């Protein structure tokens, strides 16, 4: 059963914790929700256009006038579809003004022929104004379009209530088209953002897996390589000791296999105390004099794992990049802070690290330490030694939050 801190892993890959790898969804245009939103918007546009079509056919005008009206209706519908495209308000201002001017002409000129039967198209114009123009300009013009629809019924000699009804329906139509278009755009952006978050989650999971493999296996594989070289030298003269080293190599290999399984399963707690013992055994085996000072109290799992991983990387770098004859390991806890210091001689002056943290390994450790509220320093120290310092609160904020949550 997983500990509580493993159940509250952060979504931020820099915290070094495991996230569920989500499969990125298909791009927003193929997702059901954006497609449904667009379908509703287009259905609303076609419904208003159908209402105007019925009005034209019942206006009692000539066939030529009916045909002209239907063609003009198709032109307005095409313009409205262009205006209702998500992100249409980001088009150049000149183009927006041109298309709005054309739509205004196609809205008001046919009123001379069809009178109130054409008035539904004013709702399209009102919606387009809201969609394309800045609010401080769009809303007053939106109101002007609504008020202009008070005139056609009055010219026909209809009651005032008909004028009010026509103005109100025009404003409502424009508001509905504006709302549906903005909703479609919002849904599309939301699903695009969800897809991006999913892709980042996958990338973060891959980085976590690569980082954990490096941190956990770099030390073990280095230990196996060094002990194998030692065994090769011991076999002729000291076969009994060579057999003992073989047993240790097998033990390290088994631990490496267990580490790989832990990484794959997202459960990779380590113990700093155990790692200090392993480091002493490893360094003793290659003839490095080790002095260790350990004064530790209870540590949170996050902190214990981060410090243990730091010690592994420090010992791995010591074996790879130095000719050390002695090493000092200090792990002390005082006033709520845990301090890990690894210092060694035999620094290889020819070795140059490409990154500020000494390579990808120490760079990974810097990320881990930052995630638990700590800090990491490494570099040359007095008397030509190399010193790595890691300092972190014994109970990190991330683990406290997980336990509390």
TrEMBL record:
Keywords, comma-separated and alphabetical: Kinase, Membrane, Transferase, Transmembrane, Transmembrane helix, Two-component regulatory system
Keyword Transmembrane helix annotated: yes
Domain Signal transduction histidine kinase subgroup 3 dimerisation and phosphoacceptor stretches: 205-269
Region Disordered, annotated ranges: 1-30
Bias kind Basic and acidic residues: ranges: 1-21
Gene3D superfamilies: 1.20.5.1930, Histidine kinase-like ATPase, C-terminal domain
GO annotations of cellular component type: membrane
Residues annotated as transmembrane: 40-61, 67-85, 97-117, 137-155
InterPro entries cross-referenced by the UniProt entry: HATPase_C_sf, Sensor_HK_TwoCompSys, Sig_transdc_His_kin_sub3_dim/P
Gene Ontology MF, one: protein dimerization activity
Pfam family, one: HisKA_3
PANTHER family: NITRATE/NITRITE SENSOR PROTEIN NARX-RELATED, SENSOR HISTIDINE KINASE DESK
Official protein name in the record: Signal transduction histidine kinase subgroup 3 dimerisation and phosphoacceptor domain-containing protein
